[in-house]
Design a protein that fits this description.
Blueprint lengths: L1 H20 L5 H9 L3 H26 L7 H17 L5 H13 L3 H30 L1 H6 L1 H30 L1 H14 L3 H16 L6 H28 L8 H13 L9 H14 L3 H29 L4 H8 L9
Helix pairs in contact: 1-13, 2-14, 3-4, 3-11, 3-14, 4-5, 4-14, 5-6, 6-8, 6-10, 6-11, 6-12, 9-10, 11-12, 11-14, 12-13, 13-14
């Protein structure tokens, strides 16, 4: 019953956001904008999606090193499967399926691998905020005078997110300091409050902290952070290529701002970020860069398709090779319990 209620709520949210996105939109005009889009720029955008997926897989290898050596092929395939799952399931389910898929291939702890994904998200947030700061304080200062209220709001959101990311990184440093000690502390708790759940938590916590081993290796952590910049610049290039295809007056550095807005948009827990992604692009293009609404809507639709379809097709192919179908993905996403991903 709870699952059905959650599904209905997610679908209602997605439909509401899409209704807001398409409110007072001339669909014939949007179709015309899509038809007139320049194909060479669209092809470049598609290419960046594959490149960014490869950089993610490469960076993940560095983060996984404390758990064991992982091949690029398995890292790439698991990354594609994870993104495919997030494209069709709500609440970023791919973040759970991705380490499970890799653990099947590499015989490592899925819980430890999941810890590296948490660290990934912190690195991603810090990188996006640093790139946004370069736009706010260097490349796009004139935008602040054109739309001061919206620009100030973006600064405030960036500052809060930056502070939260630093706190999260500090917590990860603490957890990674001594995984065995964390496991022992929770083990003592299990003896005081005997229960199967407490014992499972002790095991999971130690494996999770072990997966954060990169934090204890400054060279690996710095390399992972260094790879985050070409990753997000590649994603920015993909965004800008679509914007260029639709003849919109946005400089390449303007994609840094759009990137930040998309991070907010995809945080909405709908399958494939439907609705949140689209509205974030539309608002960014119309509010900050004065784009025509029809062109902004068309660009949002195409950009979302290019962001989802390549990894979706790859991921479904790799999952099928492993014997994992859509129903199995849904089952895995609902089986997130302590000790189940050992």
């Amino acid at each position: 019953m709870r699952t059905h209620v959650r599904t209905i709520a997610v679908l209602a949210l997605a439909v509401s956001l899409l209704a807001l996105f398409l409110w007072n939109v001339d669909l014939r005009g949007v179709l015309g904008e899509i038809v007139r889009a320049r194909p060479e720029w669209l092809l470049l955008s598609v290419a960046t999606m594959f490149v960014s997926l490869s950089i993610r897989a490469w960076r993940w290898q560095y983060l996984l090193e404390p758990l064991g050596s992982v091949s690029f092929s398995n890292s790439f395939q698991a990354t594609a499967v994870g993104f495919a799952a997030s494209s069709v399931l709500p609440a970023r389910a791919g973040e759970v399926i991705r380490p499970y898929f890799l653990a099947r291939r590499e015989r490592l702890s899925a819980t430890g691998a999941f810890a590296t994904i948490v660290l990934e998200r912190v690195l991603d947030t810090l990188t996006v905020l640093l790139i946004l700061a370069s736009y706010v304080f260097v490349f796009g200062r004139e935008l602040g005078s054109a739309n001061p209220v919206a620009f100030a709001a973006m600064k405030g959101i960036g500052a809060v997110a930056g502070g939260a990311s630093l706190v999260a990184l500090a917590v990860l440093f603490y957890l990674a300091r001594d995984p065995a000690a964390i496991g022992q502390a929770l083990g003592r708790l299990a003896r005081v409050v005997p229960s199967k759940l407490a014992g499972s938590l002790a095991q999971v916590a130690e494996k999770f902290a072990t997966g954060l081993g990169t934090v204890r290796r400054p060279d690996r952590l710095i390399m992972s952070l260094a790879l985050s910049f070409p990753l997000w610049l590649c994603i920015s290039l993909g965004i800008w290529s679509v914007v260029r295809a639709f003849h919109l007056p946005v400089p390449f550095t303007g994609s840094f701002l759009l990137n930040s807005m998309l991070v907010i948009g995809v945080a909405v827990p709908t399958p494939g970020a439907v609705g949140g992604f689209h509205e974030a692009v539309r608002i960014g293009l119309t509010l900050f860069f004065g784009a025509r609404n029809d062109a902004a809507v068309g660009a949002a639709i195409v950009l979302h398709a290019f962001s989802i379809v390549p990894s979706l097709l790859l991921g479904l192919m790799f999952a099928a090779q492993e014997g994992i179908n859509f129903s199995r993905m849904r089952q895995l996403a609902s089986e997130v319990e302590p000790g189940r991903t050992a």
